Structures are given as structure tokens and as C-alpha cells.
Amino acid sequence: MDLRDQAALVTGAGSGLGEATARALAAAGARVALLDFNLPAAEAVAAEIGGLAIGCDVASAEGAEAAVARAAAEQGVARILVNCAGVAPAKKMLGRAGVMPLEEFRRTVEVNLVGSFNLLRLFAAGAAELAPLETGERGVAIHTASVAAWEGQIGQTAYAASKGGIVGLTLPAARELAPLGIRVCAIAPGIFETAMLKGLPEAAQESLGAAVPFPSRLGRPAEFAALALHILSNPMLNGETIRLDGALRMAPK
């Protein structure tokens, strides 16, 4: 897909992987709507790249519907969706503070998995009405999974379950939407430089990076964005979850 002048939706675009992807899409000529629960963060990025910032709780049906409708009204119906919004809580089921509250598990699944499906269904409904491009494509959706989908660590039951759901969602969604010319893929990053990891001491960041076989460092958001743009440009990539982890395989803890 030629990205020039295409409308794109990026969730979690106020920081981290979403911000890097929004910047890369804008640099490639796309019209980018930056959806984020943290509206000021999205506005700051949008001001720099000429995008449209929209506050959005991806787990809310009504909120997502309003956000997608506004983006379509101001920038046109999107042919591109990149779901980066997510939360990464770390808590044991049976910790020192007692049993993990069910609501904490539920909220993680709602944001990471239900939120991704929520935006996918709305994006697909709009893209299905667009005329196909020369490639036959009407749109491309990319989800953010994680290596935790396969190798979730102790304390990651909620996070790993939600990301495992993303992996399970991708292929059947791609098969369902294939007759409409809509592709669906997912990226499963390893340990990346996000706001959470940047808050750790430098020694801790270096220790985490050293666990990656090669390159022995934390992944960079721009590298995630580069893969997202390649998926968008390569029409044969469909129904696939691609690990982006430097050959890392997570230990139990």
C-alpha cells in the first residue's frame, strides 16, 4: 500500500510504540489520527507531525465509535489501523498483599484484547466501504502482541493472557476480512524502550538489554514502526504475528 495521503488510526499514539508509529506514518505522507487515553500526550505529538489528536478509551464501545467517527469526518475513512494502546501491569495471583483482584485481570484484558478488537471491528466496517486500491487492498490492521503471549513471566498472567488473545485473534480476523481486501497482522515485540522501562535505573536497563542475544540492547520504538510500515507495504503479509525480539526467549522471572 502506498501510504501517501492515506488516512490512518493509531491507538496509544501519545507515547512509546504508538508515538513512533504515528511519526513514521506522518513522515511517509499519511494523515494520522492519534488516539490515546492521555489526550495531552497525543496532542503534543500531533502538533509536531500535523496529526489529529483524539481522546479515546479503547475499551469503551461508545468512546471508540465516537473517536473513529470524528477521525473519518476530519481526515477521511481510514485504510490503516495500528493498535498500540495497552497496559502492562505486573502482579502475582497470590502475592504478599493477598489474592489478585479480579478487576485488575479484567481491566488488562479489556484494554489490550477487547480494545484491539473494538477498534478492529470499527475500522473494518469503514474500510469495507472503500474502493479497492490497485493491489486489491481496502485496508490493513496491525495489532501489538508481545513475546509474553508465549513466554509470559511470573506476575504476567493478565498481560500474557491478553497478548495471547491478540495472537489468537489475528489469523481468524485476517481470514474473515480477506474477501474484503483487508489484511490483519500483529507484531510481538520483546523488551523495548517504553516509558515504563525508561523509568528504571540505567543499570537495570542495561541488564535487561544484555538478555537479548542480538542486538544485546532494548528494542527501539522506531524499529517497531519500521516493521509496521513494512507490513503495510507488503501485501503478502497477512494473518501473521511477527516476533520482533532479537531472538529473546523470556525466562520464568
From TrEMBL:
Record has Oxidoreductase as a keyword: yes
Keywords: Oxidoreductase
GO MF entries: (3S)-3-hydroxyacyl-CoA dehydrogenase (NAD+) activity
Protein family according to the UniProt entry: Belongs to the short-chain dehydrogenases/reductases (SDR) family.
Highest taxon in the source lineage: Bacteria
EC numbers for this chain: 1.1.1.35
InterPro entries in the record: NAD(P)-bd_dom_sf, Sc_DH/Rdtase_CS, SDR_fam
Catalytic class of the enzyme: oxidoreductase
The keyword Oxidoreductase is assigned to this record: yes
Name of this protein: 3-hydroxyacyl-CoA dehydrogenase type II
SUPFAM superfamilies: NAD(P)-binding Rossmann-fold domains (SSF51735)
